[in-house]
Amino acid sequence: MIREVLEELEERNLSPLAAKSRNSKGRMRPSDPCDIRTEFQRDRDRILHCKSFRRLKHKTQVFISPEGDHYRTRLTHTLEVSQIARTIARALRLNEDLTEAMSLGHDLGHTPFGHTGERLLNEISSKGFQHNKHSLRVVDVLEGNNGLNLTWEVRDGILNHTKSGKPSTLEGQVLSLSDRIAYINHDIDDAIRARIISQEDLPRDCIEILGKTHNERIDTMVKDIIYNSAGKDRVAMSPLIGEATEKLRNFMFQAVYIDSFAKAEEKKAMYVLEELFKHLIRHPDTLPKEYRAYICQYGEEQAVCDYIAGMTDRYALRVFHELFIPSSWSQI
Ligand code: MG
């Protein structure tokens, strides 16, 4: 059987520290193995084929409704994370399929309008809202027929991909770092494209250490992780590159993520989501049928959060328009 050959290749070729698909802690509901694919390959495919994955195309990364076609969206961010993570995983002889699966799933729980939407839902809902926890809810409950029933390792990587998370596998550590490498670098690229910052604004000491161009900086960070982590039981940057990266990240928070004109539309986006939330809490019967079904098990507020978090930017605007903007009367 082909799957057994692939499992054997994992045992033979991967690092002793890698997560092997044959040794997975398994799924919440047992299912028959595939003849062809390993368990982690199946998880990658389940994520790639789900609706939430396709909706990432129209969700904000940093810039709300950017006019240009060259700005990142949540989908292209996810693909960049996956590519960086796979390069690192392969070089360290970790499990590339596991790394890819958790990378493709890590941001499925992101709201419309990026972190603005996340902040609003966190403030307004009594249980709070964090996109990593919601990504897990998407794959465990909301997608497919009663969830995608993923392996423990992929779910752990998705839940723990944020900076404060503690993933249990080295592949999960690769994802967490790759997410940071991707967004710091592509957000610099997009912010320069939008003329919010210029090349000269970037902290000079960081640039000297990490590189002058987008490509050089990613190359420096990725190679540093690989050379600094080979054969070790943790994946990390060296202190020099790690500190320069952290400083660059802090610069981005000050110059771009908080209070720049990239965020000018943020208040409006928050207003849209807040009004949708309040309306749906008052009228839960107007939720689409699939979300209404969650009310009796999880409560109205959770069902409303599930629906809003799943919206793309443009769908949220369309629903707002339908609910609150009077339409003009036209007669042929
Ligand atoms: Mg991400």
What does the model show?
It is a single chain. The protein is built from 17 helices and no strands. The chain has 332 residues and is mostly helical. The protein has one domain (2-16, 34-263): Hypothetical protein af1432 (Orthogonal Bundle). Helix 2 packs parallel to helix 5 (96-105), helix 10 (204-210) packs across helix 12 and helix 13 (266-282) runs antiparallel to helix 16. The radius of gyration is 21 Å and the shape is flat. The chain starts with a helix and ends in an 8-residue tail after the last helix. Magnesium ion binds next to helix 4.
Name the poorly predicted regions.
Answer: none
Anisotropy-based shape: flat
Write down the CATH class: Mainly Alpha
- How many H/I helical runs? 17
Q: What pattern of helices and strands is seen along the backbone?
A: HHHHHHHHHHHHHHHHH
CATH superfamily: Hypothetical protein af1432
Provide the number of structural domains. 1
Mean of residue pLDDT?
94
Classify the beta-strand content into a percent band: under 5%
